[in-house]
Design brief:
This protein is an all-alpha fold and 92 residues long. It has one domain. The chain contains four helices and no strands. Helix 2 packs across helix 4.
Length: 92
């Protein structure tokens, strides 16, 4: 299975878990906490460095459809910031 297809299949599992993740006190801007809370109950969390930023953004948008838009954006930003092609803090 190609790497992208495997990543998307994994993120489909993330979406299945996301429906129960709406409770809690995390602010929509806390992407790392939202990612842990929304995804870890069902499977191993993937490190942001496992995919490039574009792959993370597409996957979160597609498979995080059950999450509110602000939470999807925060999770995507968190994952994309840790991706291998993310700009360094000095470049931002």
């Amino acid at each position: 299975m190609p790497r992208t297809a495997l990543a998307l299949a994994t993120l489909l599992a993330v979406a299945a878990c996301a429906h129960g993740a709406r409770g809690g006190a995390s602010a929509p801007g806390d992407g790392a906490a939202l990612y842990r809370r929304s995804c870890s109950s069902c499977h191993r969390l993937m490190a942001p460095a496992e995919h490039d930023a574009a792959t993370w953004r597409k996957a979160v948008e597609r498979f995080g459809a059950r999450l509110p838009p602000g939470e999807r954006a925060a999770i995507a930003a968190h994952l994309a910031a840790g991706a291998p092609d993310a700009p360094s803090p000095a470049d931002r």
